[in-house]
Design a protein that fits this description.
heterotrimer; A alpha/beta (239); B alpha/beta (233); C alpha/beta (474); A: 239 residues; alpha/beta; Rossmann fold; four-stranded parallel β-sheet; 13 helices; B: 233 residues; 7 helices; 31% helix; globular; NagB/RpiA_transferase-like (chain B); Lactate utilization protein C (chain B)
């Protein structure tokens, strides 16, 4: 199966390791992975801030980049969720509507791809530790991926899974929201950090780099020792 | 009676909706789903009573069940439990059928009884305001939400179930339906047949309450402070 | 009051909210309770998504045919002895109601909780005539005594604690009791009972008007709506023009959605349905009945991409689900409609100029959209508002516009993008220590004031991948 990796700009720049792990997991399950170099950002920072015109330029670039891909898989619920919005955004655009629909239909978030397409519920990894999971809002509410990451996590050998209190609540990232409304964002992430602490977990796992940078940045500042890791990193720990 | 400014107002709405004004021929579509018909579907009358009893706990309402022969005693006990010294009730033909008239006669020695009489005008309200107890029959009873439905009219004032300190509803078993859906259907069908809807219909589920102070549930705010339902087989 | 509550700037309001510990604790515990109670009801039904679908279909059909149903409603009310007044503006509505009060020479008006009367500033208009206006919902009455605006559309005094309420009662009404909620409520009961019995006019809002019979339905727990519609001889209903359903059957469905979503109850203690004036020989209820149907900016929303905002049934489920609301409270929105629905509706009804921050007061987490019982795509509407503020209203800050122009260039040019992935670490180096940015430059500063930001990876993913490919080829 041919899979094009959609790295997302945050992972590309801030978390190259997550990309490496994603590639290795996909290859482990027999996918032939390629990395279309024309890809940039999904356009969400501009789109969600109200800059439709600017965001469309990014989106067109993404459609060009993945034009010939069979599957597009990315380690982010939020960025893949954005790709899924393209058909609405380019509705009635004679040049781009078809491309938008095609890209949306072949795009998957990593855990979603593993469970829904490859039909894998146990990646055969081993990881020792107490782990809790933050379901990012866009992964669960926009993309509708709720069970896949938790199933994969729970099936990892040696893991002790603890549910995060009020896990569905936003961590306060929200892209430009975290800058534009930094004071509110701060209160939201403080609360999230508190909930993580309550679980007494050693690791906080999530499927979206934005949330992880936010929660991790707060917990680090608070002097907490919880390690914040991306789903791909945990899934790629071999026995 | 007068209707003012209507045509310009509604013409404007139609214009904003981007079409000519619609004055006739609008039909409700067939809704794609009807979950309201699924609630307590196919339950027997006794199963509905069970649901009603269970819900009574949730709404701080005392539930009692008896038959026609036992009603007088159960009602008398309930009145005593509320220390009811003054009682108001509608002028309902069911008062005779269910033995309330007899009971009221019996109680008259020790208790003030007022049966709604529209010819006495505001006197009714004045009595209701100081009464310990209001007693009415339920016209339609909703099992799911433990709700009594009252169709008010000139013999059945609105204040009877509202102003006294406590409220007793007598629920003939056959008035029990699964939920508000069936009550709404009955009312809708009557309207379609050209009947006039009652000027006032109350759906009452237990005593009044409020959570406006620090989200603490306080039972008994403006209306009755406590309520009892008596289901009669 | 009108839609806007005061003149203080957004940042100040947010800060005040964040610093108000009692309010935040109250809001957070209320949200927790509301949410769990709503969830219990949803689970018990088992087919909540079907209910939401039905609710959405009913609202859509009704609003699409609003002219038809309002005509039917007004015909029916008139047939049942009521007067109907269509008010295009707040002023027209207030003038009409003032005239009724004047004609009656009414000294006292008793009201039930109504957002639309807050919106049009009715109390002030009536008080200017010298009439005493008494709010009868317990929460509203507390706020009225204390001259404080509501902070939640279902529990308006959510931000107040019982000590504050005791003080208000003592100061304004000579209360001498304790701060036990039951005792406070008992005092309110006796005070308000007197008001109900002496008021000449009752004014209510409207949860759902039923077009087929001209009936108004009100949803309350306290029973104050039954009081206000039963005791005064004159009754006035003020309704937002969209608060209507075709028949009793749709009313029933929406009431079920409303009570479950608002307070997690199957039904509230009282669902009150009244039609016109009292009939011959009836003693309770008004002999003079008026229905005032208010537009006040709503019709501008019809036919636009925001039309579904008129589907709102005012349950506050979005407010109860919103994490932003939890931390800043209702007053931060500076609108009588707070929370996500407030952020959507307020700029539509009252213009962008005074409310341009509201659409940004959301992390776009989508909790509101998920909670809405009639499936209004609230967070998508917030994005659409932002687009309008940027592209039509041109109210976005210059720095942001420049940044977004830069974004477009960066994200549409793979070469520029690639260069940035190479340069990012170097560029942020002056602010980086041990791979952590603790005090970032420019827009990062607001972030790093409270939390760390990571330094870019030593090698970008794409550069790693390139090397891997090369070594694979060798």
């Amino acid at each position: 199966m041919k899979v094009s990796l959609f790295i997302t700009c945050l992972c590309d720049i801030f978390s190259a390791d997550v990309g490496k792990d994603t590639v290795e997991i996909l290859e482990r399950f027999g996918c032939e992975v390629d990395f279309p170099e024309l890809q940039t950002c999904c356009g969400q920072p501009a789109y969600n801030s109200g800059y439709l015109t600017e965001s469309k330029q990014a989106m067109k670039q993404m459609m060009r980049a993945f034009k010939h891909s069979e599957y597009v898989v990315g380690p982010s619920g939020s960025c893949v969720g954005m790709l899924k919005e393209y058909p609405n955004i380019f509705k009635n655009d004679p040049e781009w509507e078809d491309e938008a629909i095609k890209l949306a239909n072949k795009s998957y978030e990593l855990t979603q791809f593993l469970v829904e397409v490859l039909e894998i519920v146990d990646v055969g990894s081993a990881f020792k530790g107490r782990v809790t999971y933050h379901p990012s809002c866009h992964m669960s509410r926009i993309l509708g991926v709720n069970e896949a990451p938790i199933t994969l996590l729970k099936n990892i050998e040696g893991i002790e899974y603890i549910e995060l209190p009020i896990k569905e609540d936003c961590c306060g990232f929200g892209g430009t929201f975290s800058i534009k409304n930094a004071a509110i964002s701060e209160e939201m992430v403080k609360e999230k950090s508190q909930h993580v602490t309550e679980t007494e977990a050693e690791y906080l796992v999530g499927g979206d780099m934005g949330c992880l940078i936010n929660i991790g940045g707060m917990m680090q500042r608070e002097g907490k020792t919880v390690k914040v890791v991306h789903m791909a990193e945990i899934l790629n720990t071999t026995k | 009676m007068t209707i003012q400014n209507r045509e310009a107002f509604l013409d404007g709405l139609a214009a904003n909706l981007g079409r000519p004004r619609r004055t006739e021929g609008v039909k409700r579509p067939i809704w794609s789903v009807t979950p309201q018909l699924e609630v307590l579907k196919g339950q027997t009358q006794d199963e509905l009573i069970e649901a009603l009893e269970k819900q009574c706990q949730a709404i701080h309402t005392v539930f009692k069940r008896t038959d026609k022969a036992g009603l007088e005693q159960v009602l008398e006990d309930t009145i005593q439990a509320y220390k009811g010294q003054s009682i108001i009730a509608p002028n309902d033909q069911r008062n005779d059928v269910y033995g309330l008239t007899n009971l009221f006669k019996k109680l008259e020695q020790s208790t003030e009884i007022h049966i709604w009489d529209h010819t006495k005008e505001k006197e009714n309200q004045v009595f209701a305001e100081r009464a310990d107890l209001g007693i009415t029959f339920s016209d339609i009873t909703l099992a799911e939400s433990a709700t009594v439905t009252l169709f008010h009219n000139k013999h059945h004032g609105r204040t009877i179930s509202l102003l006294p300190k406590a409220y007793i509803a007598i629920i003939p078993k056959e008035t029990i339906v699964p939920r508000m859906t069936q009550a709404a259907q009955q009312i809708h069908e009557a309207i379609v047949k050209g009947e006039d809807v009652a000027s006032y219909i109350s759906f009452i589920s237990g005593p009044s309450n409020s959570a406006d102070i620090e989200m603490n549930l306080i039972v008994g705010v403006h209306g009755p402070i406590s309520a009892t339902y008596i289901v009669v087989d | 009051m009108s839609i806007k509550i005061n003149e203080s700037p957004y940042e100040e309001r947010v800060q005040q909210g964040i610093e108000n510990d009692f309010m935040r604790l109250a809001v957070s515990s209320a949200q927790g309770r509301f949410r769990s109670r709503k969830r219990i009801q949803e689970t018990e039904l088992g087919n909540w998504e079907d209910w939401r679908q039905l609710g959405a279909e009913i609202r859509k059909h009704t609003v699409e045919n609003l002219d038809y149903y309002l005509q039917q409603l007004s015909d029916q009310v008139s047939k049942r002895g009521g007067h109907v007044f269509f008010a295009a503006t707040a002023e027209e509505a207030n003038d009409y109601i003032q005239n009724v009060i004047r004609k009656k020479e009414a000294k006292k008006v008793v009201k039930t909780k109504s957002m639309v009367t807050e919106e049009i500033g009715l109390n002030r208009a009536l008080e200017s005539l010298g009439a005493e206006v008494v709010e009868s919902d317990l929460g509203e009455w507390i706020l009225q005594l204390d001259e404080d605006p509501p902070s939640h559309i279902v529990v308006p005094a959510l931000h107040k604690n019982k000590e504050q309420i005791r003080e208000t009662f003592a100061e304004k009404r000579g209360y001498t009791g304790s701060d036990i909620p039951e005792e406070l409520a008992d005092f309110a009961r006796s005070q308000l009972r007197e008001e109900f019995l002496t008021a000449e006019v009752g004014i209510t809002g409207c949860n759902f008007a039923i077009a087929e019979s001209g009936t108004i339905t009100l949803v309350t727990n306290e029973g104050n709506a039954e009081m206000a519609t039963t005791l005064p001889d004159t009754l006035i209903t003020v309704m937002g023009m969209e608060r209507i359903v075709p028949t009793w059957e749709e009313m029933e469905v929406l009431v079920s959605l409303l009570t479950r979503s608002a307070v997690g109850q199957k039904l509230t203690s009282y669902i009150t349905s009244y039609t016109g004036a009292r009939l011959d020989d009836e003693i309770d209820g008004p002999d003079d009945y008026h229905l005032v149907i208010v537009d006040n900016g709503r019709s501008k929303i019809l036919g636009t991409e925001f039309q579904a905002a008129l589907h709102c049934i005012r349950c506050a489920a979005c407010i109860n689900a919103c994490p932003v609301y939890r931390h800043v409270g209702g007053h931060a929105y500076n609108s009588i409609y707070p929370g996500p629905i407030g952020a959507v509706l307020t700029p539509l009804l009252d213009g962008y100029e005074n409310h341009k921050e509201l659409p940004y007061a959301s992390s776009l987490c989508g909790a509101c959209t998920e909670a809405c019982p009639v499936k209004i795509p609230l967070h998508e509407m917030l994005i659409r508002h932002r687009q309008i503020i940027v592209e039509k209203e041109k109210q976005a800050p210059m720095v942001e516009k420049m940044a977004m122009k830069g974004f477009a260039k960066w994200s549409s040019s793979p070469a520029v993008y690639k260069l940035s992935t190479k340069m990012a670490r170097l560029a942020l180096n002056p602010w980086t220590k041990d791979d952590i940015i603790g005090n970032g430059p420019g827009p990062l500063k607001d972030w790093t004031n409270s939390r760390n930001f990571p330094a870019p990876s030593k090698q970008s993913f794409r550069s790693w991948y390139k090397e891997r490919e090369k070594s694979g080829e060798e």
